[in-house]
UniProtKB/TrEMBL annotation, chains A, B, C, D, E:
The lineage of its organism: Bacteria, Bacillati, Bacillota, Clostridia, Eubacteriales. The keyword Transcription does not apply. The gene is ccmL_3. Gene3D superfamilies: EutN/Ccml. It comes from Clostridium ragsdalei P11. GO terms for cellular component: carboxysome. It is found in: Carboxysome. PROSITE patterns: BMV. SUPFAM superfamilies: EutN/CcmL-like (SSF159133). The keyword Hydrolase does not apply. Keywords: Bacterial microcompartment, Carboxysome. PANTHER family: ETHANOLAMINE UTILIZATION PROTEIN (PTHR36539:SF2), ETHANOLAMINE UTILIZATION PROTEIN EUTN (PTHR36539). It comes from the Bacteria. This is Carbon dioxide concentrating mechanism protein CcmL.
């Protein structure tokens, strides 16, 4: 999984129907040589801007969306890193 | 997902039969250290040159093409970012 | 998908049985910050050295090989870009 | 697979239910030009901080979690490299 | 697929049971801008140190392992490049 910080909300009114109702956020990878990479993640565990999150990508991301195996999403927040967990 | 700007149309007359009828566009990743990467995306939600789009890649991309699970496509436009959504 | 130029043939006599009969070519990614990356692609639509091609990777690549879902190939030519399509 | 060194534990109390009970660790890729990249891995074979580990990523990672095919994890420790195996 | 040169054996006594009996080797990508990247590959076609090999990654890699679809491996040697095939 990637560690990223959520830096903004992403709004896309015209999108695949199956994505309606999903919340999208802009995330920036933190730590290590991959730091600074941007990706858009779906969030269903109410993470907020500024949170450090665990992001699963690829087919594993869709497993987060329960029975909705057919949603064209490839990056999802699967956890919010505890504030006192000082890793970088 | 990646955020990219659509910069051109891509024409490939000789291609896999299952790709016939699909529209292909050249996209450039924007924002973060991955900016500048080029990829070709399939588009079925009528995005246009200059639009900023959300792109799903890998097996998740095929989920955008409904029952056509067997199309050899690995990057698809899944949303068009609102003009007033100022993220970068 | 990636855009790449085919630069050579690749010969591998000792290989997985399921790959017998498949043609392999060396491709170089063109355009954008990913340009210059090399990968080996399977080709079943008779592309040739010098052609610019569309390459699908990952599980989507296997979808190009019809009912042979079980072939251990992760990059396949899915289209040949038209000569007069001037993208870079 | 990637070779990485485990450098820390990662705590995320708020996470997907299916991840409860799984141990997460911060890993740093070692060796070759990819060295220095950080990723978070799930560990079920009791690896510890400082160990050099083999990490599988993508859908292959979920295969490590036995019947739990539906866990949204994309990187798992699949082996601990022997101390006297001097590769870099 | 990647082209890589096998540079060492990798020993990991403590590993997933399903990996027992599999031979692991350290490979270095050769050619193009990705050259120098290290990865560990499973080998079942008796490749040796110094060989240039074709490596499939991701879910395609598991297809090389016949009916063992459930082995948590994400990179496998699928061919040995002929000695007189002078590509770089």
């Amino acid at each position: 999984m990637l560690i990223a910080r959520l830096i903004d909300n992403v709004w896309a009114t015209r999108k695949a129907e199956s994505l309606n109702g999903l919340k999208f956020m802009l995330a920036e990878v933190i730590g290590g040589t991959g730091a600074g990479q941007h990706l858009v993640v779906a969030d269903i565990i109410s993470a907020g801007i500024g949170d450090r999150v665990l992001v699963s990508t690829g087919s594993s991301a869709r497993k987060m969306l329960d029975e909705c195996e057919d949603i064209p999403v490839d990056a999802v927040v699967v956890g919010i890193i505890d504030e006192d967990c000082n890793i970088e």
